Amino acid sequence: xxxxxxxxxxIVKVPGYAAGLVPNFLxxxxxxxxxxxxxxxxxxxETIERLGHSMKGxxxxxxxxxxxxxxxxxEGSAKNKxxxxxxxxxxxxxxxxxxxxxxxx
Length: 105
What we know:
The chain is an alpha+beta fold. The protein has 4 helices and 3 strands.
């Protein structure tokens, strides 16, 4: 897995082809967090499932296996309408995004 953890940072080695796309990709994950929170308030699990599915598919393409894994969990939690599990994983996604540091391969 191209991710190393220490106490503060999550180091992600990004493939060269994706380096220019990563800032926008990460900004979109911040938007996903906001949209998932809004969808939770409305009970719109379909949108949450779609966003989780998208994260699951796109994270690994850019070298962010952690985002893919969280997306998979969020997608499954939305299918089960498990608001608490979604909230827990959104908190993990926020922490991940706060701690991630990019290293270009």
